[in-house]
Amino acid sequence: MFLLGLLGAVLLIVYNNFIIELIAGIRIDSLTIFFKVISSTIFIILLFLFYSYLLKEKKNIVLFLISIILIYLVIELLKNIFKVPRPIGADETGYSFPSRHAALAFGTFVIMNLRYMKYKWAFLSVAILITFSRLYLGVHYLGDLIIGGAIGYYMAVFIDKKWK
Questions:
Q1: Which of 68, 79, 94, 152 has a beta carbon 3.0–4.6 Å from 106's, enabling a disulfide?
Q2: Is the separation of the CB atoms in 90 and 138 below 8 Å?
């Protein structure tokens, strides 16, 4: 299993630019606008406010906020340790690896899914759309998104278990 994971990581690194160029070749203006909106800080803040509203109970809202803050801090620490530059031509500054958007999207997916399982496909769809938007816009490599999403997901699972 470890060798399979290692092989996958090597393939991601080798094909990072190929994937970015492939997606750049199929961009459509209307989709670009859509992905810029769902990738924007304003959209993310509004989404988090909506999720907080859905959670209702103070205990769940505090857990949600703690998860967001801890995931954010860990991602920032990792970005400053690895200092991986963004793809060439990216419209954003800062480091690429791991993806903060993917980490927060999948971290919040976990928290929301554990409380509202009947809506898991809606929460998962939002997390995937936010994450894919970063690849579509050319500001992250696929590996940044996979690792960022995994970090957010597993951190939220860990935080939720410790919170109970």
A1: 152
A2: yes
